[in-house]
Amino acid sequence: MIRIGTQCYVVPTCRASARTQRAVGRIVQVVSAPYEAPDWTYLPGTYYDVAFEGSIFYCHASKLVPLSDPGADVGATDVDADVHAPAGERAAPPALKR
Q1: CA separation (Å) from 52 to 7, 43, 61?
Q2: Residue spans per domain, the chain
Q3: Of 5, 46, 80, 84, which sits with the fewest C-beta atoms within 10 Å of its C-beta?
């Protein structure tokens, strides 16, 4: 589990929408407790809301590498999970694959 406030690196293999691509390969900050996929349109797994340059995005845990909390367990890295739309725009996110 990654704690709120932890700085994480978003791995470069993360696929993202055009709006969220700017966070890939960069440092973000976790701003939520972990949560499971909200509905069937998400791939199962753990997600976190992350802050980057004044925006909040959701990100699959497998795409986050904790920096300020290196002992955190985020599970295995998987190249198919993504950072997608901002947390406030989750109405119809694309399906994620873990």
Answers
A1: 10, 23, 16
A2: 7-89
A3: 5
Q: Per the structure block, which two tokens stand in for 3?
A: 């704690």
Supply the Cα-derived Rg of the chain in whole angstroms: 12
Phi-psi region of 57 (alpha: psi -120 to 50; beta: other; left: phi over 0): beta
**pLDDT digit string, tens, across residues 32-91:** 999 998 888 887 899 999 999 999 998 999 999 999 866 666 554 444 445 554 554 444
CA 5, CA 79: separation in Å to the nearest integer? 24
This prediction has a pTM of 0.68
Q: What is the dihedral of CA 71, 49, 97, 66, to 10 degrees?
A: -20
CA–CA separation, 79 and 60 (whole Å): 11
